[in-house]
Specification:
The complex is a heterodimer of chains A (101) and B (595). Chain A is of the alpha+beta class. Chain A has helices at 13-16, 20-24, 50-58, 92-95, and strands at 40-46, 66-72, 79-83, 86-90, 98-100. Chain A has a five-stranded antiparallel sheet with strand order 4-3-2-1-5. Classes of the chains: A alpha+beta (101), B alpha/beta (595). Strand 4 of chain A pairs antiparallel with strand 10 of chain B, so a sheet runs across the interface.
Chain lengths: 101, 595
């Protein structure tokens, strides 16, 4: 999967010209790691190494499916997510690979 | 004989089904091309004996995990007549993916929808005959846990095997890797055949999790649960172990000793203090292993293990471990042997080996005996508990340090991706079967090794035979003198070095050996030790005993579980080095400070 298309350019392009630091930080697509607890969203893309992507996919986190955050553990620990009838634990690091629509 | 391969994702109740179908007759065996043991059993189906092989649970036939490689290799190397696939009926939205992948192999197949009772309770409706039609394979709904639909499943397997197709090996390289096409097919089949209500989650589980995974209550409750389990295992296990020890002692003194009274004294000692004690060592572990796995079955099958991971992962992931490793480490404080066997729940080999590296540092109940003796003999009544507590802290620190040092080398940083299944309670039969299987496995794999070690130490401490056993004149004594330059800087004299040699076999025998070496009864030992060593020497000795090889049985299980001599050597060698370094630093530091 390519890395393009994962960033939107926000606002008028012209404003950003001449300020490369702003170009570095356009509005990123929200990832599963950033989805607020209790909210549901649709999976738009999966990133990362094929090994990990395959694992994530075969546990049911597939493109087009709805995923909800049930709870987060403290101190930056794993996130409990729900896809259909399956509940999963995923670390924030891997949750970042799941891009949401 | 026809052969059936049992496949399915983890947490589908595949093993429960296997146990139901085969009973306790299953055996662990080797298969061509595969480095791990697989359970298999022969059952009578119809009028034919059929061999059922339980393959490891896999999420994805094309995946990269070790278990997935094992399953693939098995199917490539071993001809099978039928693929028996177990799916969790409540999760067909993702479980059918594996079914579709397996279908690409073009082998005869049968689908079992397990936990169909749970699915019904959640209001999930599956059109079984339409599913069978769309997939083109027979489909049977079962509940392996409660034994529902087992007859129908047996009939279906018999019928599927009756077709006269020759057994084939799977040609996986020819399998088309287009998982995306499978995905759209999956959506279609699922949409056509399964109806899921809007909220199909287990209410009870949600309610329990609100408490057990509570941001503030979760961790205290987890520690409480672990403490309760720990207490239960040892409250029940210690009397059982004592009972076994008493029984063995009675047999030894009342039956075996009189029977061999007229034998040559060397042969008699070899039989009584070598072989008999070796077998006794193996037997003394059995009650604790059975009990441990009874409770492990509850923790694991109930789904609480994943909750432990949720609660402890933030901390453990920094050490390259996960929450499950912490549970095993805690269990190691009772006895390292079953805790090491319990690491089998971990799918990633790297993670598992790293956990196996740190468990032997857990201050087990056998070591506790030695420490209680020393602390009460050497330290004042108010200092003794603090000293004991400091040893528990040292135990955790040694484990953490080891994890930090070896996390890069062993753990492959596989991401934690765990299912959080609804709470379930295992049946008594499942629990017993598990305990029984682990015990027979331990006896078969570890007995030879433990016996050999015990006999070796017997030989060292008993020859030459004309001097008192374990005295400085024996081979062990000479060995201790040889090593005195190594142990002198730790404040450990050569008499105590001999006890370290005994401690390698089992920490339970350290005090007994000490009494023999000092030539006193165990009652007078405290006074002797108090007069012979000061507190700095005693603490240095305890640190060494805490960190170095826990016992022969632990070494045997490290080998049995890792199946690697290299890893076993590392898991024995590193703690020896660490023990020396820590004791050296402590002893020299304390002396330098003027103590």
């Amino acid at each position: 999967m390519s890395n393009e298309n994962h960033y939107y350019l926000s606002g008028d392009r012209d404003i950003l010209i001449g300020s490369p630091s702003k170009l570095e930080k356009p509005n990123p697509v929200m990832t599963l790691a950033e989805l607020p607890t209790g909210r549901t969203a649709t999976i738009a893309a999966l990133e990362g190494e094929p090994e990990i992507r395959t694992r994530i996919q075969s546990l049911g986190l597939r493109v087009g499916r709805d995923v909800a955050i049930i709870r987060r553990s403290r101190f930056g620990g794993p996130i409990q997510v729900r896809i259909g009838t399956t509940d999963l634990l995923i670390r924030p690091q891997q949750a970042q690979m799941v891009k949401l629509a | 004989m026809k052969r059936v391969a049992l496949l399915g994702m983890p947490n589908t109740g595949k093993s429960t089904f296997f146990n139901r179908l085969t009973g306790a007759s299953a055996k662990v065996g080797n298969w061509p091309g595969i480095t791990v043991d697989l359970l298999s059993a022969r059952v009578l189906l119809g009028s034919e004996m059929v061999e059922i092989v339980d393959l490891p649970g896999i999420y994805n036939l094309h995946g990269f995990a070790e278990d997935e490689r094992v399953a693939r290799t098995f199917l490539e190397e071993n001809p099978v007549d039928l693929l028996l696939v177990v799916s969790n009926a409540t999760q067909l939205d993702r479980q059918l993916a594996l079914v579709l992948q397996l279908q690409e192999l073009g082998q005869p197949m049968l689908l079992l929808l397990n936990m169909s009772d749970e699915a019904r309770r959640l209001g999930i409706r599956i059109d079984e005959s339409r599913l069978a039609g769309e997939l083109g394979i027979p489909v049977v709904s079962i509940s392996a846990k409660h034994g529902m639909g087992m007859d129908a499943a047996r009939d279906a397997i018999t019928r599927a095997l009756a077709g006269a197709h020759p057994a084939r090996k799977a040609a996986l390289e020819q399998v088309f890797h287009d998982d995306d096409a499978l995905e759209s097919r999956l959506e279609q089949v699922f949409h056509d055949t399964v109806q899921v209500p809007l909220s199909a989650t287990d209410r009870l589980t949600d309610r329990l999790d609100r408490v057990l995974l509570h941001p503030w209550l979760g961790l205290p409750l987890f520690f409480l649960a672990m403490l309760a389990m720990f207490e239960a295992v040892y409250a029940l296990g210690t009397p059982l172990q004592d009972g076994v020890a008493w029984m063995l002692e009675t047999i030894k003194t009342d039956a075996v000793a009189p029977a061999v009274a007229h034998w040559n004294p060397v042969l008699r000692s070899f039989l009584l203090d070598g072989i008999f004690d070796g077998i006794g060592t193996v037997l003394s572990f059995l009650p604790i292993i059975v009990l441990f796995f009874l409770f492990m079955a509850i923790v694991e099958d109930s789904g609480y293990m994943s909750r432990a991971a949720f609660l402890m992962d933030a901390f453990m992931s920094r050490l390259g471990l996960d929450g499950r490793a912490f549970v095993m480490q805690l269990m190691g404080f009772g006895c390292n042997v079953p805790a090491l066997m319990g690491t089998r729940v971990m799918r990633s080999r790297g993670l598992r080996l790293l956990t196996m590296m740190i468990i032997p540092f857990s201050l087990c109940s056998a070591r506790l005996q030695v420490f209680v003796f020393f602390t009460t003999a050497i330290f004042t009544a108010w200092a003794a508990p603090l000293v004991l507590f400091s040893l528990y802290v040292a135990s955790f620190l040694a484990a953490m340090l080891t994890a930090l040092i070896y996390r890069r080398r062993l753990s492959n940083d596989e991401p934690l991706l765990l299912e959080l299944p609804p709470y379930r309670f295992p049946t008594a039969k499942q629990m017993w079967l598990r305990g029984w299987r682990e015990v027979t496995h331990f006896v078969r794999e570890a007995t030879g090794f433990i016996l050999l070690g015990v006999i070796l130490v017997w030989a060292l401490t008993h020859s030459p035979f004309d001097v008192p056993p374990a005295s400085p004149q024996t081979l062990a004594g000479q060995l201790a003198r040889l090593f005195s330059p190594v142990f002198a800087p730790l404040g450990i004299d050569h008499l105590m070095t001999i006890t370290l040699l005994f401690g390698f076999v089992a920490k339970e025998v350290v005090l007994g050996a000490m009494a023999v070496i000092y030539g006193v009864g165990q009652g007078e030992l405290a006074g002797i030790v108090h007069g012979q060593v000061d507190w700095v020497q005693a603490y240095s000795f305890m640190l060494f005993v805490l960190i170095y090889t826990p016992c022969l049985s632990t070494v045997a299980v490290l080998k049995q579980e890792s199946r690697s001599w290299r890893f076993t050597a590392l898991a024995v060698g590193w703690p020896l080095l660490l023990a020396w370094l820590v004791s050296f630093a402590f002893y020299q530091g304390a002396r330098w400070l003027g103590f």
